[in-house]
Amino acid sequence: MEALNKNGMVLIGCGRMGSALLAAWLDTGLAHEAVTVVEPYPSDWLKEQAAKGLRLNADIPANPAVLILATKPQMMKEVMGQIEGDFADTLFISVAAGTPISFFEAELGADAKIVRVMPNTPALLKKGVSALVANKAAQGAPLAAAQDLMTAVGVVEILTDEEDIHAVIGLSGSGPAYVFAFVEALVAAGKDAGLEEDLAFRLARDTLVGAAAMIGDNFAEVATLRENVTSPGGTTAAALKVFAESEPNLNALVSAVVKASKDRSIELAEMA
């Protein structure tokens, strides 16, 4: 944080994700006085940070250490048109889905240091997963700096091919919504089976949290965990048989879901 506190950070867009990132960085030693935030609709929390010294909707300082773009993709063209000045040493970090690095290079120049980040919403609890990919100018120390920043809100994966970001969006970017949808489906199934909604919700939630906690670092062990719950001819075996024999089966359905998100990400990138 020393370089950031010395040379400053600019955050353009401070909605849920921008606020989660900023809160984590402030918690890890980023000085309020070093931060400039541009946000037309500031939350009460952001106004509180301004009262502590954060610069809210002030002029963007020259050559900040980092400039984070956390606006909606459809606003990015307008936002980039408003960024003027000396950014020779600035690391640009974009958390906008669907906006490729080539767009930023066209706006800022090929020599600009650009890192594209795809976080997900558990970052709000510092339990997110973020995938990073950098252009040629941002390899090495700039990419490492971006990795350090994103580690404040969870785990980080480094990509070497920007095209992989679309699959990441389909899997982990949109993934929390799939989990939430599955919980909703479990609760509905519990109600159909005769349980009260509140009880069905607690059972579904706590089962999911507990099962997730059992997963370690080795993917091969996941199959063992599943098998340990599945007695031959038992209740779980009967349930998993439905997953396997449905049309489409569980694997095919999840693959189609991830592909739909990935394909939409590609479409948005082509529109940028």
UniProtKB/TrEMBL annotation:
InterPro entries for the chain: 6-PGluconate_DH-like_C_sf (IPR008927), NAD(P)-bd_dom_sf (IPR036291), P5C_Rdtase_cat_N (IPR028939), P5CR_dimer (IPR029036), Pyrroline-COOH_reductase (IPR000304)
Family as reported in the entry's similarity comment: Belongs to the pyrroline-5-carboxylate reductase family.
Binding-site residues for NADP(+), renumbered to this chain: 12-17, 70-73
Function summary: Catalyzes the reduction of 1-pyrroline-5-carboxylate (PCA) to L-proline.
Organism of this sequence: Actibacterium pelagium
Keywords, in A-Z order: Amino-acid biosynthesis, Cytoplasm, NADP, Oxidoreductase, Proline biosynthesis
Principal subcellular localisation of the protein: cytoplasm
Localization per Swiss-Prot or TrEMBL: Cytoplasm
UniProt GO molecular function: pyrroline-5-carboxylate reductase activity
A cellular component annotation (GO) from this entry: cytoplasm
GO biological process, one term: L-proline biosynthetic process
Metabolic or biological pathway: Amino-acid biosynthesis; L-proline biosynthesis; L-proline from L-glutamate 5-semialdehyde: step 1/1
Domain Pyrroline-5-carboxylate reductase catalytic N-terminal: from-to ranges: 11-98
Catalytic activity: L-proline + NADP(+) = (S)-1-pyrroline-5-carboxylate + NADPH + 2 H(+); L-proline + NAD(+) = (S)-1-pyrroline-5-carboxylate + NADH + 2 H(+)
EC number: 1.5.1.2
UniProt key word Cytoplasm: yes
Coiled-coil stretches: none
Protein name: Pyrroline-5-carboxylate reductase
Keyword Cytoplasm: yes
Annotated ranges, domain Pyrroline-5-carboxylate reductase dimerisation: 162-268
Superkingdom assignment: Bacteria
Pfam families in alphabetical order: F420_oxidored, P5CR_dimer
Binding site residues for NADPH: 57
UniProt-listed SUPFAM superfamilies: 6-phosphogluconate dehydrogenase C-terminal domain-like, NAD(P)-binding Rossmann-fold domains
